[in-house]
Amino acid sequence: MIVAVTGTDTGVGKTVAVAALAARELAAGRSVLVVKPVQTGIGGADPDVPDVDSVGALTGCEAVQLAALDEPLAPDTAARRQGVEIPTVAEHAARIRDLASGFDTVLVEGAGGLLVRLDAEGGTLLDLADRLGAGVVVVARAGLGTLNHTELTCTALRARGIEPAGVVIGAWPEHPGLAATCNRTDLPRVTGVPLLALLPAGAGSLPRPTFLAAAPTWFTIDSKVTPG
C-alpha cells in the first residue's frame, strides 16, 4: 500500500503527520517505509533538519530521501537557482515502486502543498500520487482559513479522479479557540472526507517511546488508511 501525504500549505505539520501515520502502521504490525522525493532547505548556515531524519527520530522506521536542494524554496525553483537537475516525477514513481516491494506500507511525503512542482517539468505530488495509484491523506491547519485551503486541495484531488482518504489536523492546540473548534466539525462537512486525526501541538518534540505509544490514540478511525 502506498499513501501520499500532502499539506494544504507549508508548515502545517505534515512531517509529524507522516510520523504519526507510520507509528500507527507499526503498532498494527506492518512494516513501513517513508519516502521524501525532494527535500529543500538543507544548505546555508542554518540548514533545516531533513524531514526523513525527523520521522526516523520519532518512529525508528526506515526513511529515504531521494533528492536534496540547498534553498528553502519550491523544488523546481531551488533546483533552477542551484543549477542542478533533479529527478522527474516519473523517475520518482519508478524508484518508489521498486522500494515498495519490501514493505507493507509506503508513506510518500510531499513538499508543501499538492500542486508544488517537484521537478523541472511541472510534475507535482498530485501527478506522483496518480502515477502510483496511491491514496492521499491531506494535512491541514486547525485555525482560520483551513476550510478554504482544505476544500481546494480535496477538489484538486477529485478533479484527477482521486478520492482523499481523509484529513489530519497537523497541530491541534491545547486550548482551541472558536475557529479551531468549529473547524473540527466543519472540515468533514465541507470536504466530504473523514477527519482521521488531531495531532497535539508540539508532538514532534516527544521522545520516541512516548510518540510511538501516543500516536495511534490520536486517530479517530482505528482502521488502516486505504487508498481512495
TrEMBL record:
Chain sites annotated for binding ATP: G11, V12, G13, K14, T15, V16, D51, E109, G110, A111, G112
Lineage of the organism: Bacteria, Bacillati, Actinomycetota, Actinomycetes, Propionibacteriales
Group of enzyme by EC: ligase
Superkingdom per UniProt: Bacteria
Reaction it catalyzes: (7R,8S)-7,8-diammoniononanoate + CO2 + ATP = (4R,5S)-dethiobiotin + ADP + phosphate + 3 H(+)
The protein's assembly and partners: Homodimer.
Pathway: Cofactor biosynthesis; biotin biosynthesis; biotin from 7,8-diaminononanoate: step 1/2
Active-site annotation: K36
Organism expressing this protein natively: Nocardioides panacisoli
UniProt keyword list: ATP-binding, Biotin biosynthesis, Cytoplasm, Ligase, Magnesium, Metal-binding, Nucleotide-binding
Residues annotated as binding substrate: T40
Main location as per UniProt: cytoplasm
EC number(s) per entry: 6.3.3.3
Listed Pfam families: AAA_26 (PF13500)
Matching CDD domains: DTBS (cd03109)
Positions contributing to Mg(2+) binding: T15, D51, E109
Compartment annotation: Cytoplasm
Function according to Swiss-Prot or TrEMBL: Catalyzes a mechanistically unusual reaction, the ATP-dependent insertion of CO2 between the N7 and N8 nitrogen atoms of 7,8-diaminopelargonic acid (DAPA, also called 7,8-diammoniononanoate) to form a ureido ring.
Cofactor(s) this protein requires: Mg(2+)
Keyword ATP-binding listed: yes
UniProt record similarity statement: Belongs to the dethiobiotin synthetase family.
Protein name: ATP-dependent dethiobiotin synthetase BioD
